[in-house]
Design brief:
Strand content: 35-45%
Number of strands: 19
Shape: globular
Oligomer: single chain
Length: 282
């Protein structure tokens, strides 16, 4: 099942993507106001039953896709989690524990949305990622059971304002949270075996710039859930962006940042394609 949030003629809703259309779930599961509420109520099975055999209410082409989860309690991001990515930061050894930081929901747009290059910086960068969605509240999860808590997968562009990632002495939070600099979507795919490697491809203006699988991650999905739940409770609907692969093109100096008119596509065949274009802040 593919679950999406969207606007239709200015009205926010959520539903299940079926073929090239959407079955509206807000009207059929009216006690829920959002997909986050569906996840927290453990109502995914009910949603799947409601969708079975139902024709789409509206074509995908007529809606504005939003981030699938509009207001998750947490969007957690994992840094430098693919083999050889540490070389980008002059780090040669694999870390003992994951590097983590937060993103605010306001920093993310949906598929088809506009990434905003802020007035204060031209250094808008992109990072394609697989993101996991937590299905049940959990704490102190043993690694061998961690995959049971994944309800689905989505895609992320963990967009970054590079010259603001070290704006303070020790943190990256500022550079990761400019409004509308990243994206989530296009939807949440719930029917994926979390044990299988997922193939991730990123294209900038049609050219492949990242190409790897989650088999290359230093900390896998189970590692991340087990580690995180040692110190915090994960809630249903929380999102973990699991890290970005090394870019395939050679480094240049000075770096080439995103500019208005550029397009980014983040694709996983098991999930779909997350598309964005770049504009300047008004």
């Amino acid at each position: 099942m593919r679950l999406a949030s969207y606007n239709l003629r200015g009205r926010p809703s959520f539903g299940a993507v079926v073929g090239e259309g959407i079955v509206d779930l807000r009207s059929r599961l009216s006690r829920f106001g959002s997909l986050v509420e569906v996840f927290r109520a453990q109502a995914l099975a009910e949603a799947k039953t409601v969708v079975e055999g139902v024709r789409p209410d509206v074509p995908l082409s007529e809606v504005e896709l939003l981030p699938p989860l509009l207001a998750p309690e947490k969007i957690l991001c994992i840094g430098i989690n693919y083999a050889n990515r540490g070389a980008d930061y002059n780090v040669t050894n694999n870390p003992k524990y994951p590097s983590m930081f937060y993103r605010a929901p306001t920093s993310m747009v949906g598929s088809g949305g506009k990434l905003v290059r802020p007035k204060i910086s031209e250094q808008l960068d992109y990072e394609g990622e697989i993101a996991i969605v937590i299905g049940r509240d959990c704490k102190h999860v043993p690694k061998e059971r961690a995959l049971e808590y994944i309800a689905g997968f989505t895609l992320a562009n963990e967009g970054t304002i590079r010259d603001w990632t070290r704006h303070g002495q020790f943190n990256v939070t500022q550079g990761k949270n400019f409004d509308a600099t990243g994206a989530l979507g296009p939807w949440i795919e719930t029917d994926i075996d979390p044990k299988k490697p997922l193939h991730l491809v990123v294209r900038k203006n049609g050219e492949i710039t990242q190409d790897d699988t989650t088999a290359s991650m230093i900390f896998n999905f189970a590692d991340l859930i087990a580690y995180t739940t040692t110190f915090m409770t994960l809630r249903a609907g929380d999102v973990i962006c699991t890290g970005t692969p090394v870019k395939t093109m050679p480094k240049v100096d000075p770096p080439v940042w995103l500019k208005p008119g550029d397009t980014i596509e983040v694709e996983c065949p098991d999930i779909g394609v997350l598309r964005m274009s770049v504009v300047d802040e008004a």
